[in-house]
Automatic annotation (TrEMBL):
Keyword flag Transcription regulation: no
Principal location: cytoplasm
Biological process, per Gene Ontology: proteolysis
Family, per entry: Belongs to the peptidase S33 family.
Record domain AB hydrolase-1: where: 42-117
Species classification: Bacteria, Bacillati, Actinomycetota, Actinomycetes, Kitasatosporales
Subcellular localization(s) per the UniProt record: Cytoplasm
UniProt name for this protein: prolyl aminopeptidase
Gene Ontology MF, one: aminopeptidase activity
UniProtKB keywords: Aminopeptidase, Cytoplasm, Hydrolase, Protease
One Pfam family hit: Abhydrolase_1
GO cellular component terms, A-Z: cytoplasm
Catalytic activity: Release of N-terminal proline from a peptide
Keyword Hydrolase among UniProt keywords: yes
């Protein structure tokens, strides 16, 4: 089947999700959809403050990819949210983001993955 570059795959629902304790009082929301045995791909959303969306699940062929989405610290369904005046933003840096992605990769038992975003 021919696909145009901007075509999305059909909407799908996650088959797994959770909250991962990443330290410093932060918990990141994650979800997995597509083929559990497919090539792992991590979708990193834009910001600031947004999170993963149902549309983000449609970027990869669900028959070929194990699509992992997560809400970065302070965003979406992760806690605490950046809009919370009590949130300590000193623990929300690029280094923390990379460490959180690595912790999620290990939590899901993934050796390597494609990074998209």
């Amino acid at each position: 089947m021919h696909r145009e570059p901007n075509d999305l795959y059909p909407p799908i629902e996650p088959y797994g999700s959770g909250m991962l304790d990443v330290g410093d009082g932060n918990h990141v929301y994650w979800e997995v959809c597509g083929n559990p045995d497919g090539k792992p791909a991590l979708v990193v959303h834009g910001g600031p403050g947004s999170g993963c969306t149902p549309r983000s699940r449609q970027y990869f062929d669900p028959d070929r990819y194990r699509v992992v989405l997560f809400d970065q610290r302070g965003c979406g369904r992760s806690t605490p949210h950046a809009s919370d005046p009590a949130a300590d933003m000193a623990h929300n840096t690029t280094a923390h983001l990379i460490a959180d992605m690595e912790r999620l990769r290990e939590h899901l038992g993934i050796d390597t993955w494609l990074l998209y975003g």
